[in-house]
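My main concern about presentation is that the manuscript never shows what a single data entry looks like. The format is easy to grasp once an entry is in front of the reader. For illustration, here is how one protein appears when written out as sequence plus structure tokens:
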Amino acid sequence: MPNIFTDPEAIAEHVIRDVGTSLVVGLPLGLGKANHIVNALYARAVADRSIKLTLFSALTLEKPKPKSLLEQRFIGPVIDRLFGGYPDLVYADALRAGALPPNIEVIEFFFLAGQWLYRPVAQQNFISANYTHAASYLLSRGLNVVPQLVAKRVVDGATRYSLSCNTDTTLDVLRARAQGRASFKLIGQVNSELPFMPGAGDLPADEFAAVLDSPDTDFPLFAPPSEPISDTKYAIGLHAAGLVRDGGTLQIGIGQVGDALAQGLIVRHRDNARFHGIMKRLAPGTEPAAAETAPFEKGLYGVSEMVFEAFLGLIDAGILKRDVDGVILHGAFFLGPQSFYRALREMPADQLARIQMVPVSFTNEIFADADSKRRARVDARFVNNAMMATLLGAAISDGLENGQVVSGVGGQYNFVAQAFALEGARSVLALEATRPSGKRRQSNIRWSYGHETIPRHLRDIFVTEYGVADVRGKSDADVIAAMLQVADSRFQGELMRQAKDAGKLPRNYELPAAYRENFPERIRDALKPAREAGLLPLFPFGSDFTDVEQRLIPALQILQQAQRTPLQLAGLLWQGMRHPPDVANRECLARLDLDKPTHFSERAYRALVNAALQRSR
């Protein structure tokens, strides 16, 4: 049985006494980190330089840090409300400040997107790894401690602990330990808000060497609020929704596109005629590449490394219902808003049993028990995000051409590989056609780029807000033509010139007229009726933002965009000064403490936000 502790410093001392002064600590990805234990080990190593501490991690979660006045006033109260009791990971603060002691090393294989750009130590210690390889890298480094947040339950007088949100790599290294290929101490920290998930991660107490269990170290789970879904993301999600085959299998990656895809599937299932109407408006005059538009009779089976709230929405809608041995959804880790965790905690046992948390080697690979996985994962659609793509079909998803890492490959290659290994499966890589760059915009579809995550010989399906490019098995010239059709029209001419100059596209090639109107305004107008009808809400699966905050978000996005162009910003300022705020706007201004401005900058912000609120309607 494990040693039970109520004090983090005491359990840290026990670990060091038991394991030694050379600690190789494997931290679960994201939510599952045992923050108090990690902080106590870090503090011991800071105080005693004879302790060598290596922290191997992924997706270190940090509270948002607002910068501008408006950011502070808008997100500050949200941070207090959602993250007020969440204990910061001290190593992250030290790493960001460049203040890690020489006896402490932090190594990660996946970053929170963009959070560690141009941070030398973090960038230098990054390990580029497929998610399924992370466990083997841990073992090769001499892993000897795994501290993990767990849920607790007493069954017939016996205590059991659930790995809950992070079965991903932990179950894989536990299997290695059971086979004699590893020797490490599993250390638990009990959290009362963590859902107790059934399945392979439901462990007897004797799997743990020690457990921290105290009300003083209980804390609210990290719960990032859902982000509002833009027209661009909805257009991408709707196009992807037309690729999902009834009776098939679904995997969705991290981000707003996942929510948009799920809501698109729900509209397709519940209001099929209107779904057809939306799709016709999105792609007028073109032959639709998306042919799967019927409601779901057989339903889908989910197998996704990440499980998030949209999957529960698909279950509630009767879409995710095709079971494999009684299970409709297999996942390896989860993360989401408080409503998601609450829904899992309160779900009846028979329904929760249909959601099984498993090792990442199960979700992301087919090598073990391949025959049964092939039978289960029929017509699979693996939908993941990319930052950029080339005209020749390579994808850039995790880093920049100067070597800086934005996030990590994670499971993307794993799912692309499955798409080629499974009959009827497809890899769908979603990306926005453009991105802001200073005062201008740049195309995310490039002729070439100095870094690739998925090489062109694994090209399959790309989706932008402008449509679907099915490029599997096609010649280079046909791939280029298909990618041009989903590029933004402001960049199609230059992209086509580069392809022709390289001799990869015939000199007489002309883009069909139907694809020359790829502009944001067309997407906005195409989705406007569905937006107004409530089919495509900003937050389809609920939100931790208040009603007033939800009204503010689109306005603040308008203001953020206007800041890139001084003329637009001046126009907003003039509009806001000429037209006083109405009652609804005054409520929003009060939320930002701008209802009674006391100095010039507050009066300017008041006018700008007032005008942005008027335009957002």
Notes: The first strand starts at residue 3 and ends at 5. The CA atoms of residues 21 and 51 lie 5 Å apart. The longest helix spans residues 600-616.
